[in-house]
Specification:
15-stranded parallel sheet; 22 helices; F-box domain-containing protein; about 20% strand; FBD; 14-stranded parallel sheet; F-box_AtFBL13-like; single chain; about 850 residues
Length: about 850
């Protein structure tokens, strides 16, 4: 009966005419959610192509939660010629896409131009606004500022030319996986990791060579992969990788120069995959690194070269948790682990010509491997001495590189010609006028005016932009227009509609022929309530400038002249900058007319006469006389500073016999750079007097060249508020501050050839800061001279509460040889390690 039923279900053959009928569309009977889920596994260009199948399919792709663009397939020459339109393709797709919460967004485009980079940056900002969870980028672009505070991002993968914003706080509260592969731009890795409070997995491929110290510190990190395919000789001597991840469970380190890596002990570590490089010059560092993994349970160790003549069994660290060991390395490591891993259960050995010739039997008194139950070996091998050996197997030794397989799966097919020719949508025009004007305010006026040809709506949008920026030193201006700059500015100002200007910038270094026309433009800007005024041209400022009520920020360059008479009243001015002025300025009168001035910057030596800087509201002051110190020969010239509210002071290369400052109780930070002119006894006393006037400062940075005649011990002024000191000066200043700064906590010393030869121990047997407060000391550019060792010995011996001392050898060599000698560096570390330490908690970091 069953066969009869089955035979009854058979149908007659379809006639030839009926065989040409289209097949049934079984996908279309599925719900939209299921179809979108299926399309999410395809590249975006394939899912978009389904829109031609039927009317129902026309916009189904717009509801797919994944977007995947790969423009790196260059097999088709025509496709390669159309790459300038790729940002338009992405913009077109994003404008039609309807999903407001993206699951993933992938974008691969290696040959990115500057214009494409800006458009791709806008695309990335759009997907961040759509709450993207997974971001995969491989192109030359700077990530937008909003990336730093993306709340939904869970998985981030960055390749090659992607750069991070140069400033801004990082807050990625949902990020769990971070991959950085072959980056060629600067990355502040510690700052990035600190902004990821739930980070669980980190992959770094290729050294982050732009960092002096790659600090990987995260309390939540569980998986870490580091692949540095380079030799120790290719890295800077100061380059260092520090790993501090107490929750780490999996660690993979591939070809990392182990002389540049340190890891804190990790008790939670379960699995480690370590590949030793073939050119490591410091085998002791390799052994110390392996010993730091003593808590691991499963260890895979590989090294394809013969290890240098070094007794690896000399280490007595025990691997009590190790249960599985896989070795493709020198067999002296096998002896080491047999003697130190008492609970080893599984041993896998892979043999080659280099690593099999150094076998030595373990010492019997150290041989306590009673738990070994499985041995895997790639060749015939006699085994003895294992009391609980149950199985011997010969597995295949071919290991597939799963990571490469996953990367190859990311490759996408070529985009069809029809999609490449899709017209890009004008997404800007759908924005409100206020938003467009805000965007145009970041462009020079020349470019914002050029947008008037885009469409009828854009014709006068530039006239409502609150910023005007004219820079006629730009090569973009044709030569035939350079004689009519003032007429260009007047024409723009006459058509401009904004009555309250945010910023007005005018740069035109000429001979002053257009003085009247430019002065008229400045008058117009002042009448329109300008807030930021930036001028670099040859012109006499109009009289109305002296009474501008709205001016907040003023920046003056070059040959600008101030009105010779008139009352100055700038009630809103908070920031004032002078750059290389060549005309006379009555600075005291000008400052007195700025009742809310907070920041003053003076670059160069303008004709101030007596430079009297007196303001009760001034908070930040910068004086930079770097290129003009020789002009202070006139003994009548004097710079007087009276700013009781000052919190920041920066003085660069000022002749200190011509400067005086009243004591400032509010001063928090000071950066003082002494000039490099030949010093004498009088000048040295002036410098000390100036420094003593800063006795209330909390953070002080002091730098200079050698002082030939200097007696710093004669000063008895105390620096009771000083907690952080950074010195790049003659070491006699170090003696002065150790004796006078009782609450010093952080000391940073930049050592140089000239300033390190004048070390003298303080007159007091023990300074107060060494007894009670000094906790951190960092020495950069350590030269390994006898004076350097004496200074380090003194601090280590007398600092009773010191927590950490970091010593960084100079980049271009140790000692005076000019070559980096690893043996000399090791000898210096051994010598310093033997110095007596007054603090038992002091940690020494030397590299």
């Amino acid at each position: 009966m069953e066969r009869a039923i089955q035979s009854s279900r058979k149908r007659n053959k379809v006639s030839d005419r009926n065989q040409n009928m289209p097949s049934i569309d079984r996908l279309s009977v599925l719900p939209d959610e299921v179809i979108c889920h299926i399309l999410s596994f395809l590249p975006t260009w394939l899912s978009v192509k389904t829109s031609i199948l039927a009317r129902r399919w026309r916009f189904l792709w717009a509801h797919v939660p994944n977007l995947d663009f790969d423009f790196n397939n260059e097999e088709d020459d025509y496709l390669f010629r159309l790459k300038m339109s790729f940002p338009g393709i992405v913009n077109r797709v994003l404008s039609l896409h309807r999903v407001q919460s993206l699951n993933s967004f992938s974008l691969f485009h290696m040959c990115t131009s500057i214009d494409d980079s800006r458009e791709f940056q806008t695309c990335i900002a759009t997907v961040i606004e759509r709450n993207v969870r997974k971001l995969d980028l491989a192109l030359t672009v700077e990530l937008p500022q909003c990336f730093l505070t993306c709340k939904t991002l869970v998985d981030l993968r960055i390749y090659d030319g992607v750069t991070f914003p140069s400033s801004g706080a990082i807050s990625l509260p949902s990020l769990k996986k971070l991959c950085l592969e072959s980056l060629i731009c600067d990355v502040d890795l510690p700052h990035l990791i600190s902004g990821c409070p739930v980070l669980e997995e980190l992959l770094i491929e290729g050294p982050l060579i732009n960092l002096e110290c790659c600090d990987i510190s995260s309390p939540t990190l569980k998986r870490l992969t580091i692949n540095f395919p380079c030799a120790s000789s290719e890295l800077e001597p100061d380059y260092w990788v520090e790993i501090n991840a107490p929750s780490l469970r999996y660690l993979k380190v591939d070809d990392c120069p182990y002389g540049h890596i340190s890891i804190s002990p990790i008790t939670s570590l379960i699995e480690a995959d370590i590949s030793l490089p073939s050119d490591d010059l410091f085998p002791r560092c390799v052994l110390e690194f392996l010993d730091s993994l003593c808590s691991v349970k499963c260890l895979n160790l590989s090294c394809s070269y013969e290890f240098p003549d070094l007794g690896v069994a000399g280490s007595h660290v025990r691997f009590d948790n190790l249960t599985k060991l896989e070795l493709y390395a020198d067999w002296r490591f096998l002896k080491k682990f047999i003697e130190s891993a008492d609970h080893l259960e599984v041993l896998i050995i892979r043999e080659d010509y280099q690593n099999a010739k150094n076998w030595m039997e373990p010492m019997e008194e150290r041989f306590r491997v009673y738990s070994l139950v499985l041995v895997s070996y790639s060749a015939t091998f006699g085994l003895s001495g294992f009391r609980n050996l149950n199985t011997v197997v010969n597995p295949e030794t071919t290991i597939f590189n799963m990571e490469r397989a996953r990367q190859s799966s990311r490759k996408r097919n070529k985009v069809s010609d029809g999609e490449q020719n899709m017209a890009s949508i004008d997404r800007l025009s759908v924005l409100p006028d206020e938003v467009i004007c805000h965007i145009l305010s970041f462009l020079p006026t020349k470019l914002s005016v050029a947008t008037s040809i885009l469409a009828r709506r854009w014709r006068f949008l530039w006239a409502h932009v609150p910023n005007l920026d004219f820079n006629f030193e730009d090569d973009g201006y044709p030569r035939h227009l350079r004689r009519s700059f003032s007429s260009i500015v007047n024409r723009v100002m006459s058509l401009h509609k904004v009555q309250s200007l945010n910023a007005f910038r005018l740069v035109c270094i000429d001979d002053g022929r257009d003085d009247y026309e430019f002065r008229t433009c400045i008058v117009t800007a002042i009448e329109r309530n300008v807030q930021i005024l930036d001028l670099a041209l040859t012109v006499q400022l109009p009289q109305c400038f002296l009474t501008c009520k709205t001016l907040v920020d003023l920046r003056i360059w070059g040959c600008i002249g101030f009105p010779s008479s008139g009352t100055i009243s700038l009630p809103s001015l908070k920031k004032l900058c002078f750059h290389s002025l060549e005309c006379e300025v009555d600075l005291p009168c000008l400052i007195s007319g700025c009742p809310v001035l907070e920041e003053l910057f003076i670059d160069g030596t303008p004709n101030f006469g007596s430079c009297d800087i007196s303001s009760p509201t001034l908070k930040r002051l910068t004086i930079d006389f770097r290129f003009y110190s020789y002009e202070f020969n006139n003994i009548d010239y004097m710079v007087k500073i009276n700013a009781p509210s000052l919190t920041y002071l920066d003085v660069c290369h000022c002749s200190y016999e011509h400067i005086s400052i009243l004591s400032i109780n509010s001063l928090i930070e000071a950066d003082i750079r002494l000039n490099t002119l030949p010093s004498n006894d009088f000048y040295a006393r002036c410098v000390l007097k100036f420094l003593d006037s800063l006795c209330k400062v909390k953070f002080l940075k002091l730098s200079s060249y050698e002082f030939s005649d200097l007696e710093v011990a004669g000063s008895y002024v105390r620096f009771d508020n000083l907690t952080k000191l950074e010195l790049a000066v003659d070491w006699r200043f170090l003696t002065k501050f150790l004796e006078s700064a009782d609450h010093l906590e952080v000391l940073i010393i930049h050592e140089g050839y000239m300033n390190s030869k004048n070390w003298m121990e303080p007159m007091e047997e023990r300074c107060a800061c060494l007894l009670h407060s000094l906790r951190t000391v960092r020495i950069d550019g350590f030269r390994c001279t006898e004076q350097s060792f004496n200074m380090v010995r003194y601090i280590l011996r007398n600092a009773q509460v010191l927590k950490r001392m970091e010593i960084r050898c100079q980049r271009r060599g140790v000692g005076l040889k000019g070559k980096f000698d690893l043996k000399e560096k090791f000898d210096a570390l051994r010598r310093i390690s033997l110095f007596h330490r007054g603090s038992k908690e002091c940690e020494l970091d030397f590299c």
